């Protein structure tokens, strides 16, 4: 996840830069922008403010910020992933779970049969 910070508030901007130093990027290379108001941008905008439409409200902790940013980034990635790929991933995950359950059942069944030989 790469983010760019575009804030009017110098205090909020500095706070975000300290919290997110490993995730900071230029505007052109970022996945999304973090701002203290809704702005026109070609990139998705994560808004931090007191309004109801914001992604996270002030005040916030570092942990809450990181969690909210992670959820926002995952949501963006899900929107980019075509539904057919999501369906394939879900089917593959189901197949893996069923295989594990079946293998476990067979192991337990063989173990039980050997106990009563």
Chart the SSEs and their pairings:
Elements: E1 3-6, H1 10-19, E2 32-35, E3 45-49, E4 56-57, H2 62-80, H3 83-115
Parallel strand pairs: 1-2, 2-3, 3-4
Task: Provide an overview of this structure.
By secondary structure, the chain is an alpha/beta fold. The chain has 3 helices and 4 strands. It has a 4-stranded parallel beta sheet with strand order 1-2-3-4, with helices on one face. Helix 1 links the parallel strand 1 and strand 2. The radius of gyration is 23 Å and the shape is elongated. The N and C termini lie far apart (58 Å).
Q: How many angstroms does the end-to-end distance come to?
A: 58 Å
Dominant shape: elongated
| Helix fraction bin | 40-55%
The largest pleated sheet is described as:
4 strands, parallel
Report the count of strand segments.
4
Concise account of the structure shown:
The protein is of the alpha/beta class and 117 residues long. It contains three helices and four strands, in the order E-H-E-E-E-H-H.
List keywords for this structure.
117 residues; alpha/beta; 2 domains; four-stranded parallel beta sheet; 3 helices; 4 strands
């Amino acid at each position: 996840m790469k983010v760019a910070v575009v804030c009017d508030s110098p205090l909020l901007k500095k706070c975000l830069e300290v919290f997110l130093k490993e995730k900071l990027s230029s505007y052109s290379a970022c996945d999304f922008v973090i701002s203290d108001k809704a702005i026109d941008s070609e990139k998705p905008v994560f808004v931090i403010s007191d309004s109801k439409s914001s992604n996270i409200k002030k005040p916030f902790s570092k942990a809450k910020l990181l969690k909210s940013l992670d959820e926002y980034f995952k949501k963006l990635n899900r929107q980019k992933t075509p539904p057919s790929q999501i369906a394939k991933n879900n089917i593959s995950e189901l197949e893996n779970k069923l295989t594990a359950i079946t293998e476990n059942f067979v192991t337990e069944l063989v173990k039980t049969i050997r106990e009563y030989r």
